Amino acid sequence: MPTSTVNWIWMGNAPMIDDTPLTDSTPAQQTAVVGYTASGSSQLEAVAITGAYEFSPGQTQNGFSPSWAASANPPHIPSHFSYTADGMSHTNLTAVSAIAVTMRIQTAINPDVFQDQGALLVQMSNGDMFFRPLNAQLPNWAGITQVHSIQVISVSIGTSFSAFNHTTSFAPSIFDVEFPCFTRGTLIETDQGLIPVESLKVGDLVRTADHGFKPIVWIGSRSLDRVDLAARPKLRPIEIKAGALGPGLPLRDLVVSPQHRVLVKSRIVQRLFAQDEVLVAAIHLVGSAGIQRLNDCNQVEYFHFMLDQHEVVFAEGAPTESLYLGKQAAKMLPTSCMDEILTLFPDLHPGEGVPARTFVTGKQGREIATKHISQGQALLPALRN
After folding, report:
1. Measured on CA atoms in the order 222, 228, 234, 239, is the torsion positive or negative?
2. High-pLDDT (> 70) share of the chain, %
3. What is the dihedral of CA 61, 63, 67, 70, to 10 degrees?
4. Neighbour tally for 234: CB within 10 Å
5. Which end of the chain is more exposed for a tag (fewer CB within 10 A), N or C?
6. Is the pTM higher than 0.90?
7. Domain co-membership, 155 together with 191
């Protein structure tokens, strides 16, 4: 069979849409795809894919075919694909599902800019998800230089292709598109439910672990672009995958600054520190399953909020800290933010506040991570509300 190389966007890896690859997906299986989202450089990547396609003179459906197409009417020879995505090379994979969907694409530096486009969603036999626009949508990508996230917002029920175009491809410029990661959208638990951090404002009541709901007294943000992160690579964000801290914690992927502390509670902590809980900087947990530095991130926006004292709060369901104005945090904040904070709190001296839990050193934090890895223990138990 002849081969064709096309440029698609890899959208991470997911449980199989269709667990019976020799039969077409059902409407219920197709509908379950709605809501699937990939964001940031850890889940989005432009990839060149080479696949074998069926060519029969006189046929109008020449193209790539999924594994179930052998039993279609007319039957097609399933295609096999090779590509490299997320640092891993794959050969001889089949496409299990090829579904017509509508994608919501979050573009540009302004994260409120969206485009809805008809697209083809393809899942390979290893679970890798891929997206490419319909032919008519390709011109809309000419001016796109950054993509923050891509989400499936609807499915054309029953439109599962037994053959699809083997030439429809992003232009080579797709490899120049940046997939920046950012913390905008992180859900914080408040008295009004889960609220995106960028929507919080002074006076909003945030749930704390120790003192119920407390009002925000200051909130600010700082954006870092490619130049900033290249000059200060230690500020590249840390990604904590859903479930990486413990059962269901965090609920979704959580992106924080390297020095942002998360709560760790385990028997290991009790043995090491004679206390149940400590706060560990995210950077010192890197290497634990599902926790990594996003070295390819080209843009990040960090949000900070203060309460009247340092507290354990809940981000994506996981216990983490409100802003503690330590010396590292003070260095990271722009001068204008520090001026505002010190105007509000003239008696505040960075590094002198009382922390909500014991802060561990870098060496201690790395030891905590190492021991949890070697002993196969979660960093957090399942927490009760």
Report:
1. positive
2. 86
3. 40
4. 11
5. C
6. no
7. no
Task: Work out the burial of residue 367: count CB atoms within 10 Å of its CB; fewer than 13 is exposed, 13-18 middle, 19 or more buried.
Answer: middle
Instruction: Determine the length of the chain.
Output: 385
Note whether 311 and 286 are within 8 A (CB): no
Contact criterion met (CB below 8 Å) for 368 and 375: no
Query: Residue 8 in contact with residue 132, Cβ under 8 Å?
Result: yes
380: its two tokens: 């957090």
Which DSSP state fits 343? Answer: H
Helix (H, G, I), strand (E, B) or coil at 131: strand
CA-closest candidate to residue 163, choices 62, 68, 232: 62
β-pairing, 254-256 vs 238-240, is antiparallel
CB under 8 Å to 335, separation ≥6 — which residues?
none
CA distance 247 to 380: 8
Domain termination residue (choose one: 121, 155, 176): 176
Burial class (CB in 10 A: 0-12, 13-18, 19+), 345: middle
Q: How far apart are CA 104 and CA 115, in angstroms?
A: 6
Residue 59: per-residue pLDDT? 57
Instruction: List the one residue out of 77, 151, 138 whose CA is nearest residue 111.
Output: 151
pLDDT at residue 180, as a whole number: 56
- Between the alpha carbon of residue 176 and those of residues 47, 54, 141, the distances in Å are 12, 31, 12
The domain total for the chain is 2
Mean pLDDT of the chain: 86
Q: 65-77, pLDDT tens digit by residue? A: 998 888 777 788 8
**3-class SS shares of the chain: helix, strand, coil, % to 5:** 20, 40, 40
The amino acid occupying position 174 is I
Same domain as 343, residue 214: yes
17 assigned to some structural domain = yes
Is residue 155 located within the same domain as residue 206?
no
pLDDT digits (tens, 9 = 90+) for 259-268: 889 999 999 9
At 162-214, the pLDDT tens digits run 888 999 999 998 987 766 554 778 999 999 999 999 899 999 999 999 999 99
